[in-house]
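Q: How do we represent a protein-ligand complex in a form that can be generated token by token?
A: Start from the inputs.
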Amino acid sequence: MRKACVIGWPVAHSRSPLIHNFWIEKYGVADALYERLAVEPDKLADTIARLNELGYVGANVTVPHKEAAFALLTRHDALAKRLRAVNTIVTTDEGLEGRNTDGYGFIANLKSGAPGWNAAAAPVVMIGAGGAARAIAVSLEEEGAPELRIVNRTRARAEALVTEIGLADAHIYEWDELPRALDGAGLLVNTTTRGMKSENDLSLDLSPLAKQAVVTDIVYTPLETGLLRDAKAAGFTVVDGLGMLLHQAVPGFEAWFGTRPEVTDELRAHVLGDMGARE
Ligand code: ATR
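Then emit the structure tokens for the protein with 2'-monophosphoadenosine-5'-diphosphate bound:
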């Protein structure tokens, strides 16, 4: 039996089993299974040390364990090292390796939802400076974004993000400077939780954005946040956040089960069905 799991606390909310078990069935991976593993913080070290012994070839790591898992592992890929956070654990010939596929998921989702988008063409605006924002900022820099404009409610957190991950071309804007930050930008990404509840929607004047700009949100409940609804109405290309969740799962599945899976409409519908949502 080849098993993988998602490690979190709590973990019942995780949609990763839905994604990986869909692919296991679709690609006919024999004797494979993906499980939820609820692990309390004080049991994380023991669980990771015994991951293979417990029957797992690898795992995803979710809230609140991403940073602790980084510290517990001795091998990491480049992005995990830079972010000091791990969302995927893989068994290699040298032992367990911590990886971070969040940035890959973000970029793959953008490329699939907005094929015409060119990172190098114009500045990028990112709202938020939390854990997800870190992976996104690095991935945008690696993709060739010429300038990253960061706007966060708490400025000090944006400053910490820039220094801790060492971003070269980042500028921090105050919340009330948003119109200036948006001026001529080719991508606007919301990495905050604003929009998860409709009364908390981000309501922005998007007119300063470049005409061809893409607007994306990492919130996917609801699938169409207020920000995306406004952007669509204003004629911008919009990319919802569900695809990031689906795409970040691809490298882990390939490493554990040996098949590179595809993110398809069928998978999206499967996950949306579980969320009680439809397109
Ligand atoms: P994650 O790790 O999932 O990104 P997080 O670290 O809690 O989550 O980050 C949440 C982000 O949403 C932060 O940028 C936070 O802003 P602060 O740094 O000022 O806390 C932002 N955020 C959450 N609620 C917000 C609100 N009501 N208005 C503006 N920003 C908000």
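Residues 39 and 47 are 8 Å apart (CA to CA). The pocket of 2'-monophosphoadenosine-5'-diphosphate is lined by residues 128-133, 152-154, 157, 191-194 (CB under 6 Å).
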